[in-house]
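Readers of this paper often ask what the protein records in our data store actually look like. Such a record has a labelled line for the sequence and another for the backbone structure tokens. The tokens are whole numbers drawn from a learned vocabulary of local backbone shapes. We quote a single record here, exactly as it is kept in our systems:
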Amino acid sequence: MQHFHFKKGSLLYENHFKTMADLADFVAEGEVDYQITDEGLMLSAKKSSGVNGDFSHWLFWLNKDFPDRIMIEWSFTPIEEPGLCMLFFSATGERGEDLFSEHLKKRTGHYPQYHSSDIHTYHLSYFRRKWQDEREFCTCNLRKSTGFHLVAQGADPIPTVADAKEDYRLRLVKFDHYIQFSIDDLVVLEWEDDGYTYGSLLSAGKIGFRQMAPMKARYRRLQVYQAETY
């Protein structure tokens, strides 16, 4: 595998999650409970959705299209377990439509609607503490859809909530065929998409955060840059 070193280019988007007005760019699918505090954006499932099992999970999309060759950075603090946290990126309709096109099937947060329906996307699970086997051996998983293709996996350095520190700085780089994910500057996983084995190479599109209930987590300082190599 060819290894790359990246630097930040021009800033494409920034959100410090200081006021409720900062959420105007986001679209919720599923029962999302979101609160802005002095410490940032707190996300969890609404308590009323807890009776719905796997239908109580949700996705929080940033309603902006980003080009290829981007670096996504955000600060993340796990607050309550069990649960799971994910980042979706390069998300479009299956024919390249806008993710919110009226021609696409309605989505309500149920996972199969995102990995095996009518959208294309990469999705990274970076804090997996939902099921017992995930808690026994913690990994970060990268998948490509349409389809439920596990394409890369790496060890998760973030401890459980009881031992977690404040604000892990997460970075996802999508640069043509190459994807790299790091936590506090430690590279956790990287993968090259050949554009054939699991379908055509994905490029521009939207990003979104997902959690599996009853996970509660805090987000701060979301920044998206044009990525450059050096």
Notes: The longest strand covers residues 216-229. The radius of gyration is 16 Å. Helices lie at 112-115, 132-136.
